[in-house]
Amino acid sequence: MGLSLAVALLSTSAMAQEAAAPAGPTLTKEAKEAAAKVYFQRCAGCHGVLRKGATGKNLEPSWSKKDKDGKVTEGGTLKLGQSRLEKIIAYGTDGGMVNFDDILSKDEIRDVATYIQMTPDVPPEWGMKDMTASWKLVVPPDKRPTKQMNKINLQNIFSVTLRDAGEVALIDGDTKQIVERVKTGYAVHISRLSASGRYVYVIGRDGLLSLIDLWMEKPQVVAEIKTGLDARSVDTSKFKGFEDKYAVAGSYWPPQYVIMEGDTLKPLKIVSTRGMTVDGEYHPEPRVASIVSSIIKPEWVINIKETGQILLVDYSDIKNLKTTTIESAKFLHDGGWDVTKRYFLVAANASHKVAVVDTKEGKLAALVDTKKIPHPGRGANFTHPKYGPVWATGHLGDSVITLIGTDPEKHPDQAWKVVEELKHHGAGNLFVKTHPKSGNLWADAPQNPEKDIAESVAVYDLKDLTKPPEIINIAKLAGLPESKATKRAVQPEYSESGDEVWISLWAGKTEPSAIVVLDDKTRKLKAVVKDPKLITPTGKFNVHNTQHDIY
Ligand code: DHE
Predict the structure, then answer these.
(1) Count of C-beta atoms within a 10 Å radius of residue 135
(2) What was the pLDDT predicted at 95?
């Protein structure tokens, strides 16, 4: 359905491009189209559509910036040149850029290197008319069941992203069987739950939001809408009295968020996020990163990546929308609640900081300096034997797991400070996870360039953090055919009762992948979920844990 960002990028400004006749290298129309597609699929997430940089570096053909002392620095992709760019794309950098030589062909690498030396195209806007035209109410609420029509234990369903298949698999956590595969948007990013646990909201990178009704005999999509051309986040209204009433989706392009009816996805209000960074400079592409829903107020916490502004959006009166704008640090990305669900901790990843928002007071509680590129997913909460309640994050850019104290009342000396850094088995961590009933902390390292590290997870004993973690090679446990390509062990996720940990083994699109289930207490293999249709599983969202923000 609808326009893809890569096509849109080209259609709006192709004419302007030709008229401007760029000085640097160029591509034929076909090669440019193909390179724009690769750029959207593989590069835009980190570098931005306008290529101004965020987690990744600025990729404009030429740029200049002034520091606070007035010193001007100049750079750009034209200065780096074709052969250097090809090398960076193929082999990555020490700065955290991953290698693409195992994903892209030599020709693709060559053309993307040329493409990023050309002037960035500006994609079109996506307002209420486009959004409404894309909206499909497949099964209206009055035609839906009034009670659960299947016999599945819905609280233990896992909604699993099948990244390269454009689908999610709903897997029964009790039987480990795939209940349903549901067609969704391109490279789905996350699944979130309605407050009641009945509806699953799935957002594709292409902005397609799908609403799945778990009560139907066969859970299926009951509504969908294209919320933007490039998106990553969605959540629902969870405050008492507003359960299942609203959904909110944030997009990377256009930079905006949309509030919708929770059970139909009818768009109600679109709010732009363009504006000033915390440094007081205008940014044309401030993308919506993570969104979470408060249970102590009718509020969403909406994190704006490039500006570093955290929005507390009060949805009790959406016609007269009240928003508190909290200044934090640039490059906000992902984050999660502390154990009390009063404080939200979010990584300002390329600023190497974690911002802490006190949602009760509507204020920034702290900006915590950390090691390079914190990437918590939603983080992990547990009680440290010495420092009391802490929240954990891993790092893409360093091999530590950082623990931050979260209890200003009983542990004021530790609150919002890094109390400990646990040694991880490598940099390239994306997700950490624990569960209130567990004595373990699980951490992956899928972005590590070493195969053995990327295929393994570390497990820490929460009762004795002086012990080195146990390193478990998940790929070896799965019994999949040996291959040279890395099968990344990614995103530990707990079962409803907290006794199992599910880890995806994310292989290439044409290779077998799997989900490996371990017993949390014994850390031994319990099951391997394999299926030819289980293509590139990445994120897994357990209904109960996602519904109640348990991590
Ligand atoms: Fe994610 C969460 C953005 C790449 C798997 N990812 C998020 C969130 C954002 C984001 C903003 C927070 C959503 C929220 O909580 O509302 N991710 C991005 C990117 O911009 C980036 C770096 C590049 C891109 O082009 O998308 C990126 N992410 C990835 C992957 O390559 C991963 C590993 C595999 C995949 O499926 O694409 C991936 N991201 C995830 C997962 C979560 C996530 C599994 C949710 C974690 C959770 O426990 O809630």
Answers:
(1) 18
(2) 73
Q: In this structure, which residue's CA is closest to atom 36 in ligand 1?
A: 538
Q: Give the CATH H-level superfamily of domain 5-115.
A: Cytochrome c-like domain (1.10.760.10)
Ligand 1 proximity of 46 Cβ (cutoff 6 Å): yes
Residue 226 Cα to ligand 1 midpoint, Å, equals 19
Q: Which of 118, 131, 283, 333 is catalytic?
A: 333
**345-361 burial, b if ≥16 CB within 10 A, otherwise e?**
bbbbbbbbbbbbbbbee
pLDDT for residue 18: 41
The answer, yes or no, to whether any atom of ligand 1 lies below 6 A from the CB of 378, is yes
Q: How far apart are CA 60 and CA 40, in angstroms?
A: 15
Per-residue confidence (pLDDT) for residue 19, from 0 to 100? 42
pTM of the model: 0.93
pLDDT digits (tens, 9 = 90+) for 51-79: 999 889 999 999 998 888 889 999 999 99
Annotated active-site residue 97? The verdict is yes
Residues 189-231: pLDDT tens digits?
999 999 999 999 999 999 999 999 999 999 999 999 999 999 9
46: annotated active-site residue: yes
Span from the CA of 168 to the centroid of ligand 1 (angstroms): 15
Pairwise CA distance, residues 463 & 482, whole Å:
36
Q: Which of ligand 1's atoms lies nearest the C-alpha of 539?
A: 44
In the reported structure, the alpha carbon of residue 189 is separated from the centroid of ligand 1 by a whole-number distance in angstroms of: 6
Q: Is 216 a catalytic residue?
A: no
CB neighbourhood size of 296 (10 A): 13
In the prediction, which pLDDT does 16 show? 41
